Amino acid sequence: MVVNMHILGIESSCDDTSVALVEATENGFVVVSEKTSSQIEVHKKYGGVIPEIAGRMHAENIIPVVEEVMKNQNKPDVVAVTSGPGLITGLLVGVETGKTLSNLWNIPLVSVNHIDGHIHSVELKAEKTTIEFPAICLVVSGGHTELLLMTNHNKFELLGKTRDDASGETFDKVAKLIGFEYPGGAKISKEAENGNPKAIDFPRPMIQTGYEFSFAGLKTSALYWLRDNPKFNKQDFCASFETAIVDVLTTKTIRSIKEFNPKTVILAGGVSANKKLRETLGQTINKTNAKLLIPEMKYTMDNAAMIAVAGYYKTIKNNYTDWKTIEADPNWKVYTNNNE
């Protein structure tokens, strides 16, 4: 049963201060108003996100962003805030804002896991989109690479995760090696479009077995290859490197589909914006009985609308958190099992 309501989402787990007012309707979720203040230009000079700077900027931006989103709007029915995982400096700002608004407006507060939000971003579409269970979720971003079995909304089991670098982190670090400024992952993908993916035989770490990932060795391989080949075709390098990551992610996802026979496969997180990954996974899953859900490009990155959607499913179960007791948890795991 659909419960109509308005949810105010707040996301501040990394370097984006994002707030969104989302309406839950019988026809799906409608973003009424949203605003995201990005810090990329500030962190670019450092080659990555500096937690202390991120926290200060979240503190500066959060109230103006909330005010802009709520301008001429009625108060929401519930506040949903990311309380982990992520950078503690950013999480604290979002959590304190969420608990303050909950107290001020006298409305319920729900604590949302950032990964749960990314997974539910697939429901932010013009046509009503619903997740059918069980679902396999491949979450790939700068800070996370996880393969999850989703048995219901907000309920996950870990199948495997990266043992070292996340896939998005690997993209960004190797991009820096070839002279791209932060964040460089998207720039690798752009160069790769006109390159030969078979030009360089990069390793596919841990591709043969299981659901665990490891990208540190691939990053090191790229480093040594660049050292030994100072004159190289940048497009071929990018295409070969990108293909190595996509092959690993796709192979392990297909392996999980064969074992668990899901009704839905979800690709989410910042790296889900990667064109080759979207296309490769799509072509492969078309040969199975599962349906593939990928968020719209604008919702692949951190955003508050996805937090509102995930918060909705906790709200209809009355799974609230008292504003007096909510805490930021930078290490909050979205799954309940200990298969690590």
Automatic annotation (TrEMBL):
GO MF, one example: iron ion binding
Cited Gene3D superfamilies: 3.30.420.40
Superkingdom in the source lineage: Bacteria
Statement: the UniProt record of this protein carries the keyword Metal-binding: yes
Reported cofactor(s): Fe(2+)
Listed GO CC annotations: cytoplasm
E.C. numbers: 2.3.1.234
Annotated binding of substrate, by residue: V139, V140, S141, G142, G143, D172, G185, N274
Cofactor details (free text): Binds 1 Fe(2+) ion per subunit.
Keyword hit for Cell inner membrane: no
InterPro entries referenced in this protein's UniProt entry, alphabetically: ATPase_NBD (IPR043129), Gcp-like_dom (IPR000905), KAE1/TsaD (IPR017861), Peptidase_M22_CS (IPR017860), TsaD (IPR022450)
Domain Gcp-like: 31-308
Localization per record: Cytoplasm
Catalytic activity: L-threonylcarbamoyladenylate + adenosine(37) in tRNA = N(6)-L-threonylcarbamoyladenosine(37) in tRNA + AMP + H(+)
Amino-acid positions noted as binding Fe cation in the UniProt annotation, renumbered to this chain: H114, H118, D302
Keyword field: Acyltransferase, Cytoplasm, Iron, Metal-binding, Transferase, tRNA processing
A Gene Ontology BP annotation from the UniProt entry: tRNA threonylcarbamoyladenosine modification
SUPFAM superfamilies linked to this entry: Actin-like ATPase domain
Pfam assignment, any one: TsaD
Function statement: Required for the formation of a threonylcarbamoyl group on adenosine at position 37 (t(6)A37) in tRNAs that read codons beginning with adenine. Is involved in the transfer of the threonylcarbamoyl moiety of threonylcarbamoyl-AMP (TC-AMP) to the N6 group of A37, together with TsaE and TsaB. TsaD likely plays a direct catalytic role in this reaction.
Matching HAMAP family: TsaD
Family, similarity comment: Belongs to the KAE1 / TsaD family.
Name of the protein: tRNA N6-adenosine threonylcarbamoyltransferase
The organism of origin for this protein: Candidatus Magasanikbacteria bacterium RIFCSPHIGHO2_01_FULL_33_34
Name of the encoding gene: tsaD
